[in-house]
Amino acid sequence: AGAGLGATRAIEVGLFLFLVVLSSTVAYTLGMAALMRTVRRSSVYAKLRNLSAFWHDMAKAFLVFTLFAPFMCYLPVSALNQLCRRVFPFTCSPEGGGIFTQRVQRLLKRLATWHWGSILSKVTVWCILYLSLN
Fold it and tell me: Among residues 23, 80, 93, 133, which is most buried (max CB within 10 A)?
């Protein structure tokens, strides 16, 4: 029992890191705005948008479940970016007066409109599903 788990864990971590780097590269290459426009034009997004609030919150919960860790790494990077723009005058001028860049501020405002009680309860469902399938 447990034989060979070291190699399995290494493959899982490697695959996860590959997916994170691949998603970041695609988002950076296409630009987040272009990527979101493409996603919004897709038929899958249109079908998900037409479903009930339950399924819409399930999709949001899946995003929170999968992207929470990268997002928590992205926030300090955005704050550091904004700080460097304030401290070093030879770089770009600061975006707005907040701690984060304007892109992150807009994202946080949008996230503030979500129904977090419903979404976090559905994140629990995704976590239980993940653990039961693991």
Answer: 23
